[in-house]
Design brief:
The complex is a heterodimer of chains A (about 270) and B (about 475). Chain A is α/β, with parallel strands linked by helices. Chain A has a domain of about 170 residues: Ethanolamine ammonia-lyase light chain (EutC) (Rossmann fold, 3-Layer(aba) Sandwich). Chain A is built from 9 helices and 6 strands; from the N terminus they run H-H-E-H-H-H-E-H-E-H-E-E-E-H-H. Chain B has 2 domains: about 130 residues, Annexin V, domain 1 (Orthogonal Bundle), CATH 1.10.220; about 290 residues, TIM Barrel. Chain B has an 8-stranded parallel β-sheet. Chain B has a two-stranded antiparallel ribbon with strand order 1-2. The radius of gyration of chain B is 22 Å and the shape is globular. The chains are: A alpha/beta (about 270), B alpha/beta (about 475). At the A-B interface, helix 1 of A face helix 2, helix 11, helix 12, strand 14 and helix 20 of B. Chain A: Its EC number is 4.3.1.7.
């Protein structure tokens, strides 16, 4: 949005714009008096609105199920015990438990054993799942052809640990859970993947899981995420565990690359 | 002691002091999640009536977490100073509130009283205080700490410069750091949350901050907010460490979940003291806390989250920290649901910390899944400064691109300097004025020139355009 620019600007720009190439942080914003100029202030409000909507606008589960069906993927839509958004935000314990109706649905479908179960939960960003889940699964599933997979389980108001209960219903060895991450101002649509080997409801903890975070357009790509996940699956199958004992060996190389540039303040 | 009352034709029996404290707490989601909160307004007020009649002495007789089971309780009881407590030892919680608000509670009297108070006493009285009470009393407390600058003097407000970067990239950190310095931020500490808590990354960032502070002769201190064990290893390798950081909580079990205990903190404190890097003082610890952290580790032991938080301050004060920061809105809506809960919690924490003798700062902040916005933060920011808060965070544009939450900006600090006439720490103020970053009355100058100190650096980057 353009703000009127008189001859002598009322807002004072910062003459160090060149630093903005080094960081996504909101630097060099300038000032009106000593306060945030109108444009920077509205930029912030815009980003906050996107992040708030990502949390509060419900995921369209019907649309997601149809999109998956169009790709030949069956799905089940389940719910947690947090039956509204306010309760979901305040009671993480309820978001980890399956609603009675969901448990019943699973009992009807869990007739044969599966190797792995794929769970998609709205989490804290419906936008993340709406944007990324379908395309990510389209890339992942061909790589899992040797695995017996039940229908993809879509969970309304789900937290990470709800995947454990679902995996148990199918006696699945692996749980792959896609979830909308807590939205940041610059990444309202960030998706995370939690991977658990031999998950057990009420027993598995965060220490038993591996997380692949920050999947969005300015973050980790689908291909990178699939690569990391397949690496974790392979290692987990060999060592028969997941979690803190299982390091993500693909991570270090990426990080080392980014440390090459020096610090201009000391040059 | 019995904790019973008959009111509005209902009778309440609160059984224990721990239960009474939880029921008397103003509403917040974490206490509902823990199942310890009052079930309705009447039960809460009934508990507040009963609590007001509890003698302060009772907190020395009835430990909320058993002495035998918890080293934080042992620390509280064993370090209690009975002679400092004497002036208020005959009072009930309700009379203690009256005393705090009275003219008898001068700055001098409150300073002398601090070692005689326990966290549970101050938590109790805060539960029957309104926001204006919390502000009025905290404002009378004065806690001054020193390392390379003097933090906490009257009519001063300090800032932590927080130049975080998603991958700890050196140039990225430096860009936010310079932006902050040019806005006059950073006298409390220049403190980076590392994206990855490992020795290599921590060491690299510590050298970077040390070199910048030396090169530009900035009278402040550096900190990389890694786990205390990482910082201990860095010190053992000879890496320059000004302040040792650690997150702390109010029960032994919660601290255990953080991988710390009092012995470990003591070891780190001694190691940092031995480096003798402070020029005007020796306060060399930086602690962060926040209501709900014990519950999130399932280590609250039936305590309400605000009492748990106050107990963390007993851990902090043992080590004479330079800074203590309550990161009030970071934890999320399952502990503090909305702006109203965050605002009250921030002011309670500041009040309790100050009364116990700590240099309390507040990370005035929220996450995007909390029911809060910039207006809520402006209310807390302003009230915190009016209450004499020691320091706030300075994050570029209030948006932390590494931790994904909203804090306060460099501009926010300048807003407070204007409306409340608050100055930075004296040593840093002098530096800012000498470098012509600030004018003589602590404002940014009207012109757009880059201060001479940083001009060559920016010119080398290929000139600086203004658009």
């Amino acid at each position: 949005m353009a703000v009127n620019k008189p001859e002598q600007p009322i807002a004072t720009p910062d003459p160090w714009q060149t630093l903005r190439e080094f960081t996504p942080a909101r630097i060099g914003l300038g000032r009106a008096g000593m306060s945030l100029p109108t444009q920077a202030s509205l930029d912030f409000q815009l980003a906050h609105a996107l992040a708030r909507d990502a949390v509060n606008i419900p995921l369209d589960f019907t649309h997601l199920a149809e999109a998956l069906a169009a790709r030949g993927l069956a799905s089940l839509t389940l719910a947690s015990q947090a039956d509204n958004q306010r309760l979901y935000l305040q009671r993480p314990d309820l978001g980890r438990l399956l609603a009675e109706s969901a448990a019943e649905t699973l009992r009807r479908h869990a007739t044969h054993q599966a190797d792995a179960v794929i769970v998609v939960a709205d989490g804290l960003s419906s936008k993340a799942i709406a944007c990324h889940a379908e395309n990510f699964l389209a890339l992942l599933l061909p790589a899992l052809q040797s695995y017996a997979l039940p229908p993809v389980c879509l969970v309304r108001h789900g937290r990470v640990a709800i995947g454990d209960a679902i995996a148990e219903q199918f006696a699945a060895r692996l749980c792959i859970l896609l979830i909308g991450e807590r939205p940041g101002l610059s990444s309202p649509d960030s998706m995370g993947i939690y991977f658990t080997y031999r998950p057990r409801a009420g027993i598995s903890t965060d220490a038993d899981r591996n997380c692949i975070s920050n999947i969005h357009h300015n973050g980790l790509s689908y291909a990178q995420a699939v690569q990391k996940l397949l690496f974790l699956i392979k290692e987990a199958e060999q060592r028969q565990l997941s979690g803190v004992e299982l390091k993500d060996g693909t991570v270090e190389a990426v990080l080392d690359n980014q440390q090459a540039s020096g610090c201009f303040l000391l040059g | 002691m019995r904790y019973k009352i008959q009111t509005a034709n209902l009778s309440y029996d609160f059984k224990s002091l721990r239960n009474l404290m939880a029921k008397a707490t103003p509403p917040r989601s974490g206490d509902y999640l823990a199942g310890v909160a009052a079930v309705n307004h009447l039960e809460r007020v009934a508990a507040q009536w009963v609590l007001a009649d509890v003698p302060l002495k009772q907190f020395l007789n009835e430990a909320l977490v058993p002495y035998e089971q918890d080293e934080v309780t042992r620390l509280i009881i064993d370090s209690h100073n009975a002679s400092a407590f004497a002036p208020v030892s005959h009072l009930t919680v309700g009379d203690f509130r009256n005393w705090l608000l009275s003219e008898q509670a001068t700055t001098k009297a409150l300073t002398a009283l601090a070692p005689g108070l326990t966290p549970e006493m101050v938590a109790a009285v805060s539960k029957i205080m309104r926001i204006q009470d919390l502000i009025l009393v905290a404002k009378k407390c004065r806690v001054v700490t020193r390392f390379r600058g003097t933090i906490g003097l009257a009519d001063r407000l300090s800032t932590r410069l927080q130049p975080n970067h998603p991958t700890d990239n050196a140039a990225g950190v430096a860009a936010s750091l310079l932006d902050g310095l040019l806005y006059g931020c950073g006298d409390a500490v220049i403190g980076i949350n590392p994206a990855s808590d490992n020795l290599q990354a921590t060491t690299r960032l510590l050298h970077l901050l040390n070199d910048v502070i030396e090169r530009y002769q900035i009278p402040t201190q550096a900190c990389v907010l890694a786990h205390v064990t990482t910082t201990l290893n860095a010190m053992a390798q000879g890496t320059p460490v000004d302040l040792v950081f650690q997150s702390i909580a109010g029960t032994e079990k919660a601290n255990d979940s953080f991988g710390i205990n009092l012995t470990l903190l003591d070891e780190a404190h001694q190691a940092a003291l031995a480096l003798q890097r402070g020029t005007v003082g020796t306060n060399c610890m930086y602690f962060e806390t926040g209501q709900g952290s014990a519950l999130s580790a399932n280590a609250h032991l039936g305590l309400d989250q605000q009492t748990c938080e106050a107990r963390a301050y007993a851990v902090a004060r043992r080590f004479q920290p330079l800074l203590v920061n309550t990161v009030v809105g970071f934890i999320g809506p399952e502990y503090l649901y909305d702006g109203k809960q965050i605002i009250r919690a921030g002011l309670e924490d500041h009040f309790c910390g100050k009364l116990l003798g700590l240099p309390m700062g507040c990370d005035v902040c929220y996450t995007n899944h909390a029911e809060a916005d910039q207006d809520d933060m402006d209310i807390l920011l302003t009230q915190f400064a009016v209450a004499g808060g020691t320091f706030i965070m300075g994050v570029p544009g209030a948006d932390d691109v590494m931790l994904n939450y909203q804090s306060t900006s460099f501009h926010d600090a300048l807003y407070l300097r204007q409306v409340l006439d608050l100055r930075p720490a004296p040593e840093f103020e002098q530096w800012l004025q000498n470098q012509q970053i600030f004018t003589g009355d602590n404002r940014l100058p009207n012109h757009r020139d880059i201060p001479a100190l940083f001009k060559p650096t920016l010119e080398k980057l290929g000139g600086y355009g203004s658009e």
